[in-house]
Amino acid sequence: MNLMRTAMLLAFMTALFMGVGYLIGGQGGMMIAFVVAAGMNFFSYWNSDRMVLSAYHAQQVDARSAPEFYGMIQQLSANAGLPMPKVYIYDNPQPNAFATGRNPENAAVAASTGLLNMLTEEEVAGVMAHELAHIQNRDTLTMTVTATLAGAISMLGNFAFLFSGNRENNNNPFGFIGVLVAMIVAPFAAMLVQMAISRTREYSADRRGSEICGQPLWLASALAKISGYAHQIPNEEAERNPATAHMFIINPLSGERMDNLFSTHPNTENRIAALQSLAAEFGQGGYDPRSTARASAGTAVRKGRSVPSAGSGRGTSRPPKGPWS
Predict the structure, then answer these.
(1) C-alpha distances in angstroms, 37 versus 5, 8, 21, 53?
(2) Which of 73, 74, 175, 250 could covalently link to 226 via disulfide, CB atoms 3.0 to 4.6 Å apart?
């Protein structure tokens, strides 16, 4: 199913490339766009993860440079039965995280410095378990390829703008109207791609991530904090690369709080409610997101700090035991 969905998505993006190319340069433009799109499809399959990580200036870490964080990912990966992914940290004050890679054998997880500094270790574990769930569900290929192609398609708007100033261009069968349509379509390409990414996969990753770390309330607490901070702390890299917004656990851009057609993520309150129900299935207590908003950010996952052991009693509104401790 994921392979078919990826193939359909790539076909759609290729057709969009060709359509905009035709509007800009006629049949010649369409053929050039087809060649470029084919090359982008091949390139993005093998390199889209590197491009996304590079866009956020993510730095790879290991057991020596970030022992606590790396060790947490190692234990969570073992819980999920996944190969150990590459681990990255990117310097950004907004707490957030994403996963990338074409398959579980070639995957990577990345967390912002804001996430590690503002959330408790339990909440970080919930977030990273969610990202590992995306890897296990093989969502990352679709997410990274669409991010790369959407960014490339958006660039066609610039070409359309350049072509609009050339009145002697006879290759465009629709004239200025065709160029104008291309200029309007291209900026919305990223939004269309994000809409094509089913938001149900976030709910699925929330559930599977909760199973990996064993604590739905850790993720619920993390989502409440990240959502609040995301609207207060800008993510300049994400603003420059809006096509990557759907890759993050919470939308890094300012805007959509409603669970509507144009949102790249489900409503955070809906996700928390689903996690509360899952916690009840697990036999855990309730969770009030308002208490988290008032709570201290707690202990961050920093070098030299230990993950709390079972029954340590630290953190907010969580059961006393986690399988990764």
Answers:
(1) 18, 14, 10, 22
(2) 250
Which residue ranges make up the annotated binding site for Zn(2+)?
130, 134, 202
Q: List the binding residues.
A: 130, 134, 202
Residues annotated as catalytic are 131
What tens digit of pLDDT does each residue of 100-143 get?
998 999 999 999 999 999 999 999 999 999 999 999 998 887 77
